[in-house]
Amino acid sequence: MIYIWLNAVPILIAAGLGFAFGAVWYQGFATSWRRAAAVEGTPSADPRILIVTFAAEAWLAAILAGALILMPDQAPLWVMTTMTPLIIWGGFVLPTTLVNHRFQGRPWRLTIIDGGHWLGVMVIQAITMQLIGLSAPPGQGYP
């Protein structure tokens, strides 16, 4: 996990941009999301929720950074940069969101809004970290 410390700056910047994207995304879908999530009024802006959210965004960026560092160099860099988050999202995030929402009896609209948010976050984070640059630990390749 040394790669996290080596890439703390790109990871934190990517987390911040993912966090900002989420604020804009949910502002745009505020009414639709509140209806689908059965939330009355405006959700609380409790600082603890925001701290947990940022920490989760940073962890997501850290794991994504590891995947980007380990990606095969046979494919073009930007193809892998955009496909890596799409594969991780489609393989882990979307299925878990689908199952949770189906068991909770939530509308499909909520799954689309929440799933779209996480896909956007991951793509933005991957592109941000590639643009800034990531450092592989000694002995590990990086395109």
UniProtKB/TrEMBL annotation:
Keywords attached to this entry: Membrane, Transmembrane, Transmembrane helix
Parts of the chain that traverse the membrane: 6-28, 49-71, 77-98, 118-136
Keyword Membrane: yes
Signal peptide limits: none
Protein name (database record): DUF1761 domain-containing protein
Native source organism of the sequence: Parvularcula bermudensis (strain ATCC BAA-594 / HTCC2503 / KCTC 12087)
